[in-house]
Write a structure and sequence with these properties.
Structural class of chain A: alpha/beta
Oligomer: heterodimer
Structural class of chain B: mainly alpha
Largest interface: A-B, 23 and 17 residues
Helix content of chain A: 25-40%
Distance between the termini of chain A: 31 Å
């Protein structure tokens, strides 16, 4: 899979307007490639994420979307190029400090099965050594924010929750230490359609209230267009296009068309 | 005669339990940290598991025999018996420590790392609590095996309930054999039940 050596088709060039560096990007990718063994996962990727925006990375399975997220929080380091978070390359960050500044929400939430809801949500503040009283107050506030009344949910275990409730707890946990940046890896992928719509609505409400910066990965074009301030379409380890949702609807290119066809289906 | 048997029974039972307790303490204190280390060192894993596996396959009577001529650790007596018992108990504990920790859900481990846990925090807050039940099950299996195997300690002068069994075999005396075998079986049952109870009590599944 020597993806990085494939020529880039002309219509897949990035919209020059949308790659103009903003004033103070929270995240910048500078010519980033990531190889795993002899496979190229990410090829020469460059983009920036501005404070307050929600960048949705859309793409089929195995196009490198998750790898992009892992490059941001230093779970992976770039093979070539540099990933800058708040202006500092991830290779220069203390990985522990970096990750505590970034909330991470994954499919099935990845909650700790041996900890209660309250303990799950309060874990990062606890690792940070915050006083117990502050943690309790913070946890109660977050559970209320994700519409799970603390009196009813704080002492339950993850296995006693529905998929949607678990995902809400996952979001609350990611918000616990008030990180400036949030990463979402297909967080609603395993939910039924109704729960999914509820959680998408909640995501928009939280964004309005908290104004966090987010990178959100999905393979669902509807979800992408609903949540994004900008959509980046990933295909074979590259960004095919990076633009606003309304521009995306008018964009050309085979892969864009393939995704837009899902809207008509 | 009968009261003499009773007091000897009590003495040998205590000796037997002592052998098992000492062997299990050493095996647990070795195999759990070794198991944890092996989850971090994939290259070492094959070699150490291979060694522990081979130890399991050596017939116990032969293993006791092999250890006698060894300098320092060998010879006749309790310490050689305990060493042999430790070698047998290693594998189940090692294996279960590995299985328990490596069995932690990938998504759980990944979120722990992604939320900024250090390696130590990952181990103590996530991996060990989630693996505890499996590790304890390994300790339970090893304990039951060790209680049975410890009857062979008598063959190399290690004492314990095996003294009755070997004496009974030599003199074709079923009562003597039973006096060794029955208490050993009862101790094994009690240990199994006791440790199962602890498993259920602290890590209900």
């Amino acid at each position: 899979m020597a993806l990085c050596r494939e020529p880039v088709a002309r219509e897949t060039r990035l919209n020059p307007e949308s790659v103009t560096p903003p004033a103070s990007p929270i995240v910048s990718f500078r010519n980033v490639s990531y190889h795993f063994g002899r496979n190229d996962i990410i090829c020469n990727l460059s983009f920036e994420v501005e404070a307050g925006e929600t960048l949705v990375l859309l793409g089929r399975s195995g196009t490198g979307k998750t790898t992009v997220l892992k490059l941001v929080n230093g779970l992976l380091l770039p093979s070539e190029g540099a990933v800058l978070v708040e202006g500092t390359p991830t290779t220069a960050w203390d990985p522990i400090r970096l990750r505590r500044r970034i909330g991470y929400v994954i499919q099935e939430a990845g909650l700790f099965p041996h900890l209660t809801v309250a303990e799950n949500v309060g874990l990062v503040p606890r690792l940070e050594g915050r006083p117990q009283q502050d943690i309790l107050r913070r946890v109660a506030g977050l559970l209320t924010q994700v519409e799970l009344p603390p009196a009813e949910f704080a002492h339950r275990y993850p296995k006693e929750l529905s998929g949607g409730q678990r995902q809400r707890i996952g979001v609350a946990r990611a918000l616990a230490s008030d990180p400036p940046l949030l990463l979402f890896d297909e967080p609603f992928g395993a939910l039924d359609p109704i729960t999914r719509v509820e959680l998408q609505r909640q995501f928009l409400a939280l964004r309005r209230d908290l104004g966090k910066t987010a990178i959100f990965v999905t393979h669902d074009v509807r979800e992408a267009l609903l949540l994004a301030t900008r959509v980046g379409l990933m295909h074979r380890g590259r960004l095919e296009i990076l633009t606003t949702p309304s521009e995306f609807l008018r964009a050309r290119g085979e892969e864009v068309r393939a995704f837009l066809a899902c809207l008509d289906a | 005669m009968q009261s003499g048997l009773m007091s000897e029974l009590l003495e040998l039972t205590l000796e037997h339990v002592g052998l098992v307790a000492m062997a299990m303490a050493i095996a647990t204190a070795t195999a759990i940290p070794a198991g944890i280390l092996l989850t971090r060192r994939e290259a070492l894993r094959r070699w150490v598991l291979g060694f522990a596996n081979v130890m399991q396959t050596v017939p116990s009577l032969a293993l006791f025999g092999f250890l006698i001529p060894l300098p320092f650790v060998g010879g006749i007596g309790k310490h050689t018996a305990i060493l042999a018992l430790v070698l047998y108990a290693l594998l189940p504990i090692l294996q279960n420590t590995l299985t328990g920790i490596l069995g932690v859900d990938r998504a759980v481990r990944e979120s722990a790392i992604a939320m900024g846990m250090t390696g130590r925090q990952l181990l103590w807050l996530v991996e060990l609590p989630l693996a505890a039940r499996t590790i304890l099950a390994g300790v339970r299996v090893a304990t039951v095996i060790t209680i049975g195997t410890a009857t062979i300690a008598a063959a190399i002068g290690g004492g314990g309930l095996g003294v009755f069994i070997f004496r009974g075999l030599a003199s074709v005396d079923t009562t003597q054999i039973l006096a060794g075998a029955a208490p050993a079986a009862l101790i094994a049952l009690a240990a199994d039940k006791g440790l199962s109870w602890v498993e259920q009590k602290f890590w209900p599944g």
